[in-house]
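Section: protein folds

Sequence with per-residue tokens
===
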Amino acid sequence: MTFKSFITSRIAAFGHAFRGWHYVMRTQQNAWIHATISIIVFAVCFWLRLSPRDWAVIILTITMVFAAEFVNTAIEAVVDLASPTKHPLAKVGKDVGAAAVLVAALAAILIGLLILGPPLWAKLLTIFR
């Protein structure tokens, strides 16, 4: 493999990934909910001036939720392709994919409360006193 073909294939791989990202954002309503909440969380993190370690945990947590949503969308597409008619195992596959997103989102809420809760509460108390 030449250097030029390596670079060309990497550029193509990024193109595929961005098309997949665009597809999820265009077709999955929950992805928009995740994106909106992520923007709000980022704004609160800036306002609270979180430490780099806390930022890292928040970013990893948000990434975990989006990765679960992307994998769930991929599972749904493959199941729909493989099983165009209703099948109990197709339902299991889709339900388990959705459960993965739910677990990630619930974990994100808990992590957000643990990291953002105390400094947010302290800041709000100073504002409203």
Q: What stands out?
A: The helical segments are 3-27, 29-48, 52-82, 88-128. DSSP finds four helices and no strands in the chain.
